[in-house]
Amino acid sequence: xxxxxxxxxxxxxxxxxxxxxxxxxxxxxxxxxxxxxxxxxxxxxxxxxxxxxxxxxxxxxxxxxxxxxxxxxxxxxxxxxxxxxxxxxxxxxxxxxxxxxxxxxxx
Length: 107
Known about the structure:
This protein has 107 residues and is mostly helical. β1 (18-20), α2 and β2 form a beta-alpha-beta unit. It is 66% helix and 6% strand. The radius of gyration is 19 Å and the shape is elongated.
């Protein structure tokens, strides 16, 4: 995981859009540009300033990104959400016909 992930998770938990330079991995997958944050080219302070000005100028977009940031946090980082995903996975696996056939052969 990237060093920025813990900080980004804090922003998401507070319902704040994340501004980051594009990277690969978990952070990139969760932070679709324009959905719950914006990205800028790494090392470009001018582009970073432009992204910040864009958010400040468009309060409706800022509010929408904030709402989606809170949703992303709830869906991916809350323990209850992880528990629900695990339960769904285990239910799917145990309902698999191949697993049921194998289980029926066990004495």
